[in-house]
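We modelled the chain as a single entity of 228 amino acids. Its sequence is:
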Amino acid sequence: GRMAAAMNTEKAAGEGARLPNTVVEKPFVYGSAAIALKKEEIGEGQHTHRWTVYLRGLENEDLSSYIEKVSFHLHESFADPVRDISVPPYEVTETGWGEFRIMIKVTFRDPKEQPVSVYHQLKLFATNKAEQVAVGDPVMSEMYDEFIFHNPTQKFKDLLAKKPEKKFTDHFLMSHFETKGFIDKEQDHISKLTSANKQVQERMDQLRQRLYVLDEEIMQLEKIARQS
């Protein structure tokens, strides 16, 4: 029993230890969608739009294998301005009349990983002709980004590598979400990283070669110095 317990403790320590020289990147999208309210929906109120702020996977896949919760910090004029969402889809829907900045804070399933915050400017109105939308369609504002995990633990790395269990394909905004452009962006980023990596390797090889030559020269000079 004691032996097994010791081995388990060792295993737990191993799982809790950070992996050296390991970087894992996970792409995600955050943004908002706003639809103008109909006259009868406005009634006596001041509110002009129904909006949804969200954080999602590139293809609206479930990210809960590695995300513990997403907190949306709304304008303090809202009741309970901090909304913690621990079950995906990670989103908050409200009505309002003003545009403001929303902090989106992501907490991960490994407490060793610091939470990450991004800021999104809620967009209710199209700002130019190109952004004009048909009546009843949402004004979309989305950003592509990546979580970058340096030297995660083995346990967390496994969670990051886990295939998403589901995609929220029946989401009411699915047809408005940008997908292909963001996937292209991710692919482009990967190929840039690969080529940058290759350049770094080549540069290191060159430097090693130069070091080797310099070492040879130093040895020659030391030899001459000893002889004189």
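As a brief sanity check on the tokenised model: The mean pLDDT is 88. Residues 180-227 form the longest helix (48 residues).
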